[in-house]
Each structure stands twice: as C-alpha cells, then as structure tokens.
C-alpha cells in the first residue's frame, strides 16, 4: 500500500498481477465506498486501477420505502435501486452489486447478506433508531459500517407514546368502535385520570426522556429505570431514577423505551408481572420482543394488568387470531411510532446523509459499530494516520518467516494530557498495517479491534507525557513486536523486540528509528535497510547499483553508534529494485545484512 502527500490512500489487492486500488481521503481511514475506475500503468508487468471521484457512482439499494427528500440526496451521489419487499434470497442475490443498503425495521440484514456481498457492501443504513434487525457482529467482521437515524423520529415516537397513554386511560379506541357500532355505553367506558399517577419510564434515552417531559406536563409523577442514564440529566427534568424492581412495584403506568437485546428480551414476563401493582397499565412503543406476549395475555385475564396499549409486536404484523390483539383491554396500532410526515422526511434525510458520508469515507456520528472520532480530530490526525499504518507495515515485514505476531506494544509520545489524545484511530491503522500485508483481510476502523482479537493479536498502548507545547497531537509513534525473530537483526532493540519509530515532519511521515539506530527517511515509496560497517563511500556504492537500474532514490539516511562502527543505512526508493540489484547490494563487502520493505 502506498500513500502520497496529496492525501491519497491506495488499497491494493494481493490475489492477482493487476493491483486494484481504492482511493479515498486520508481522513476516512478506509475506503467505505467506490466511485469510479481508471487504469494507470506502472510498468510493463504491473497495472493499477485507481478510483476517482468524478467517475462512475456507487450503488445504493433501498429495500424499504424512504422519504423523497432522502432519495433525492442519495441520487445526487449514487445510483439508487429502490427494490421493496425482497425475499431474503433475492436480497442476497442483489447485494453483491451494491455498496450500500438502506432498510427500515421490516428487513433482516443477516450474516448471509454480508457474506453474499463479497466484501462490496460498505455501509448499512437503518432508517430509524433500533438496529436489532441488523447482525452487528457480522457487519463488524466484514468491515461494514452500520448507521442509523436516531434523532429524527424521537419526537414522533414520544408523541405516539403519550397518545397511546391517554387513549388507553380514557378507553378512546373501544368507545369509538362502540359508537360506530350504534351503541352508547357511557358507563362502560369510564376511564382513569393521569394527574398524580406514577409513570415508570423503562429506558431513559432520547424517546424515554421526551415521554417523561410530556408526562410531567400532564401532572404525572415520573420515575425511570435505566442503568446507563446519568442521574443529573433525569433530575434536570424532575425525574427520579430507581431500580428495576422499584419501578415495577411503584408504577400505575409503565412506558417501555428500551432496545431489544438478549438482556431485555421478554423482560416483562410472568415473574415481573407478578411484582406489579394490580391494575397497572402498560404502553409499548419500543420493541415487541421486550414483552412475553403470552404472559401479558395471562396478566390481562388475571386483572394484574388492567390495560395495554401496544404499537410493536414480537411478529409484525401479528397473526389475525392473536389473543393479545383481540383482547378487549388492548389498544393496538401498526407500528406507527415514527409515522408522522415530518418524522418520515427527517429520518430519510438523516439516514441518507449518514450513508452518503460513509460512502465518501467519512465517519458518521450515527455509526453504531465503530468508535466515533470527531471531524476536527480526524483532520488533525491525518498525517499521523499514514504514519501509524506504515509503521505497522514496516514492523511486520521485519518479522522472520514462521514467527507468529502475538504481542505488540505501541507507544505515543505527546505533550498532551491523555484525555486530549484519542488514539483509537491510530491503533486501528497500526492494526491495519500489521495484518493486511500478511493476510487477505481488509482492515478498517470498524473491524480492526475485532480482527486483532480474532487472530490472537494483543496490542498494548502506552503514552509518554513529554514536556513542551501540545500544539502537535503526537511527537512520535513507536511500534514494538515482542517474542519474534527478525529478518533484519539490527531492527532488534536492546530489550529484544523489533522496534520502529516515526515522526511527522512538515506533514510527511518519516521513519526515525530502527532498533537502536537513529535514521531519518521519508515513508514514501519503499525502503531498503542496510546494516553495515560505517566507512567512506558506502552511500555512493549503493546509490550506483540503484542508479544503474534507473531506480530513483528519494531519501537516504545513516544512523550509527559511532564513527566507523556499526551503522544502519535507510534508503527510500520510488521503484522496486530487481532481485539482481538487491543481490548486488548484499554483495558489497561492508554490508552485513539488508532488507527491502514495501510500503
């Protein structure tokens, strides 16, 4: 992989003589999408395909209905295929031709879909909040970013929750059906007041907190349970955070706003219903699976639960003969939480912007399976991103064949406090540099940590606080690989690890240390490292061999222990020398060992 100072990253395939490369801005850290192909000839035997932004567009498959405003945004950047109601088999067939997929809650994005994409699928956009219909583990393993639209439908979902709450309390749906059937049963549909009643909000995220605000306005006493919610945020709107059991036993009304996870699946069941006040009323605009529906029917029949108002169900649409749906004390709506005109357009725009940004290589603030790095941090770290990856690539190429890389230590020297230096992106790029040269796996910020763990690669990080100005985020990055043999003995430090160190100078990454030897060579093109006895004429001899083959030398630097003692010469070259030229360099009498490293 090569990267130029003009902020271009080229990702080359390893499986054929033709190297297919993806071009993206450095701030992206990886090619989340493609946007065109052009052929550039490097030599008579090596061709390279480079992607340019002005050429063909990526393809986005929209598998469920999306608002027109969102579609228009997508069409400005990509080819958009709107194919609704696809079967799983049809989706698997189509997905190999797509760079992005947008779904709502009705499409299951399974492991089979990621496997069927053949690595082309770079981003899945969920038009809504919940992502339980997307296999996040599979997405991460395949380096696919998953983004959602968590803010646009917050108010709509909260309003629907309050609508169900009030409609249930006053028997609106049942009374309406009765009147339309020609009846006038005023005494049958006497409701209950909300003022002074206790509402337990289960899940105090965006929607839950908005429901709490509105319920406070209706004169209700609001408590909430959420193990991750900050108490000060709850107190700010007059809500008390309580334990799960306290919420169940204290509430007159319960409103569910939790995601569907293994921990929350059927969290309301026979056992939890038994703890509730007799006559409790339940609202669910979150996920159907958080309630054991058969247990809810039993609780309704026993009078433990007086009424339930449900917008979501375990199976959607539910069976026509569902006892729950047909129960006279249940008010049901067909998953309308986000169904306002304003929310639909807002969700469409939010998810479209996230998908387009991801295809451009940007990291979305709504990504759910990648650590988020703020845009200003990405911009500042851009040259250090290149340095980190190239140090990883150099270090792993110094490992002798047969040595398994299991333990890596990364040291960052910085004048900034630890809280002011976000190293997640740098760690991901070092992982990329370590793994990609020796495998067929494509590494990006999404799957770097997962892939390292899967391969048993332990990466430890250390920060050294330096004196001086914190203007630059990092003064140096050092990569050490322990418990391995090296094909270049001089790369072994005094403590026995392979060690390379680099710095950014004038925006360009430089290799500044190999083992215990100080060098200074720009990390562009490729590098030849030579261990030698320091003596006059060595630079000229090596330069002559390369010059005879028309190999251009970009940088040359010598690090030595002392004059005429052991030294390491680092040579940057723009072209790959022939095997014959490398052999001739190795035959120069004063050169003890050498290694050619591709960047």
UniProtKB/TrEMBL annotation:
Q: Part of which pathway?
A: Amino-acid biosynthesis; L-serine biosynthesis; L-serine from 3-phospho-D-glycerate: step 1/3
Output a single Gene Ontology CC term carried by this record.
chloroplast stroma
Instruction: Spell out the subcellular localization from the entry.
Output: Plastid, Chloroplast
Recorded catalytic reaction(s): these are:
(2R)-3-phosphoglycerate + NAD(+) = 3-phosphooxypyruvate + NADH + H(+)
- Keywords associated with the record: Amino-acid biosynthesis, Chloroplast, NAD, Oxidoreductase, Plastid, Serine biosynthesis, Transit peptide
Query: One Pfam family of this protein, by short name?
Result: ACT
Q: What is its main location?
A: plastid
Q: GO BP, one example?
A: L-serine biosynthetic process
Question: EC number(s) per UniProt?
Answer: 1.1.1.95
A GO MF label: phosphoglycerate dehydrogenase activity
Task: Write down the CDD domains for this protein, in alphabetical order.
Answer: ACT_3PGDH-xct, PGDH_4
Q: Which family does it belong to?
A: Belongs to the D-isomer specific 2-hydroxyacid dehydrogenase family.
The name under which this protein is listed is D-3-phosphoglycerate dehydrogenase
What lineage does UniProt assign to this protein's organism? Eukaryota, Viridiplantae, Streptophyta, Embryophyta, Tracheophyta
What is the primary gene name for this protein?
LOC107787868
